[in-house]
Amino acid sequence: MIKSKTRWLVKGLDAAGEQQAAHLGRELKLPPLVARLLVQRGYEDPAKAQWFLSAGAEDMHDPMLLLGMEQAAARIRQAAQSGEKVRIYGDYDADGVSSTALLLHVFRRLGIDADYYIPHRTREGYGLNNDAILRSAEAGITLLVTVDTGVSAAREVEYAQQLGMDVIVTDHHEPPAVLPQPLALVNPKQPGCPYPFKGLAGAGVAFKLAHALLGRPPLELADIAALGTIADLMPLTGENRILVRCGLETMRSGSRTGLRALAEAADVSLGSVSASDVAFFMAPRINAAGRLKHASEAVVLLTTEDAEQAGNSAAVLDLLNRERQHIVDEMTKEAEELWQVRKRQCIDEGLPEPGVIVLAAEGWNPGVIGIVASKLLERHYKPAVILGIDAQTGMCKGSARSIDGFDMYAALTECAGLMDHFGGHQAAAGMSLHRDRLPEFEQTLCACAARVLKAEDLIPKTLIDLECALSEATLETIGQLSQLEPFGSANPAPRLLINGARLAERRVIGKERNHLKLLLGGVQGADLDAIGFGLGWVAGRLEAAESADVIGELSVNEWNGRRKPQLLLRDLRVSELLVYDRRNETEPLASLRRIADDAAAGGSQLYVVGDEGGLPETASALQLGDSKKHADETGSIAGFYTYEALPADLSDCRELALIGRPPAIERLAAFLSRCPNLEAVHAMYRTAGPAGFPQREHFGAVYQLLRRAGEIPAAIAPDRLASQTGWPKEAVEMMLGVFKELELVTRLGGAIAPAASPRKRELDESALYRDWRQRTEEAAVLQAPLEELARWMRKQLHLTERN
């Protein structure tokens, strides 16, 4: 058995949904799979589904529906006409950089004397600050336009106005209770805004401002808006879907010098670039500038038309991204160590494990703490807050990431009195506070988590769209599914479940041999490659599995001009107990250590059972001491047990190694009955003993030979009868012993002869016969071919489940 890493939740469709999908497919002439997915995602109405599939630039909303847009556009036009100096005030992440670059292009096109300002992440932090505002006023700026920031900066906006500047705030973050009062506030989420789509990124709001200023959707700038939208994990539904689709088309044209250079540095084929390429390869390099240096390098990349300058900027961003990856790895390791210390501290104090991971340390780069928070969340599936502490001031700058069911912004609102600043949304947020308030901060967040989160919320889940037959996983199907692109937040790539896929091949691949490659075999020759990144540890476990249930996303693998369907494997499970035949191995100790390490890699521990004499020797050889129950130093071996001293409960035993031959089959059955959650058994004992047991007719044949002979010298009787019947000498000796116990033969003067007048006896009346048969049957199970042994063990577990 191999359990899935997550809870699988198959959405599927009920009978009504299937009918809606059939109707939708007929109306729009869609393949059944696409129609079912559309209904699942809320597009059961044909008109609504058609809009989702084919909406273009002409379907974008009127930017003037945004509250404050009319005033913002009028003031910017006034600045253009009067030759005022305008400054764009942006943010240092990819969305802020994209917003800044987009407006720079527009302002320059309108002939506006404009520059930009992005604060330094470490020295200034997020958002407007008074020093930067003062420097803007001193530089003669009369109009300040914010992008991707400002909705929480009421005091800073007021300060700028006191210095004589007009302020236009464009933002998309959640508005606080107290809003700033600029000349114009443009944010679709602000109270009273009638704009029909609330999910715009900062770059999306900037795009709408550009639309208002130019009188048309500036599709030539949609690539920059798409970059910011994808990077900020905005939902790829509604207007965002149109914007990103148009933006990807613009990117593929290769018209933007900076994006060509960025794609080359990221090893992305710009001609076929996808939202996934932007999210995982291009956006991180844009973000790296603001995280480690200053975001201006990224703005230069997105605004220059000089190929050499673009290439230099892309190279700098690529180098910064590599450095960022190294820093993240080191910080994640340190954070994990701190978390383990925190958990042990709670155990020592008799307290429950914290419901929210809150970790802080000096020297942590504030530019990557959000990434580290994401990695801690992924490892432990708990909300995580990571903070860097300024050693001189004691101030902490933090970043939070959350799980489904826990609204991080709402939780931080409960801690508002402890922080100097915070902002964000349900899944991610940022904050600053003094280190002296960290204990109360953690306590308040954990109290909120205890109140809000249920036990099932802390188990990661995988949402599966549909079950799919292996025969459906074709290039044609993948082409059909592409109609739902671009994929991303709120419109993920369809995740499919293939039940009972035969494992025709399983192996590890990659330089570090940490990835899994499967060949899933189907009926009538259908097969499918599956790749599981980071799942290489499970390859050895799969050697005992004939089939598996797998989930993943379909993709196309192109190699040497060939196109093949491929499943990007996300998770798998094997329902049956896995039994591995390691009987009579030449190096059992080395094998045992390897099994234990593999179990640990899979998040499990190995239990070892054997005979009293062999356990101390095994433990000593593994340098674990000679205790019958002793956890090893790495925690990969949970304990050593004997068949004679079975614990009452082994419900935490998932992996078991049998290093000593069970003294009796019922002792092994009793051990298995205490392991209701057992997933794998490694049979590592040595086989011995007879392979068969004579039936009644075989006993009769030996007895008839003895009667015909009259008598046979006892010394040669076993050999003679063995040669005449074909049974081993040891078996014949046992038969003669049974005859003697039943008084069917006598010994006279060193010879064996049949009894003169034997009475009729049943073989079962002989204790020797009964014992011999039991031992032979036990040996037959323990020595049987792997399929038979596995079948017997699985039966014992099924009996345990029924009981």
From TrEMBL:
It holds the Pfam family ssDNA-exonuc_C. Residues 355-449 form the DHHA1 domain. It comes from the Bacteria. Residues 85-229 form the DDH domain. Residues 655-793 form the Single-stranded-DNA-specific exonuclease RecJ C-terminal domain. One of its GO terms (molecular function) is 5'-3' exonuclease activity. Keywords: Exonuclease, Hydrolase, Nuclease. GO terms for biological process: DNA recombination; DNA repair. Residues 464-571 form the RecJ OB domain. InterPro entries: DDH_dom (IPR001667), DHH_sf (IPR038763), DHHA1_dom (IPR003156), RecJ (IPR004610), RecJ_C (IPR018779), RecJ_OB (IPR041122), SSDNA_exonuclease_RecJ (IPR051673). Belongs to the RecJ family. This is Single-stranded-DNA-specific exonuclease RecJ. It comes from Paenibacillus beijingensis.
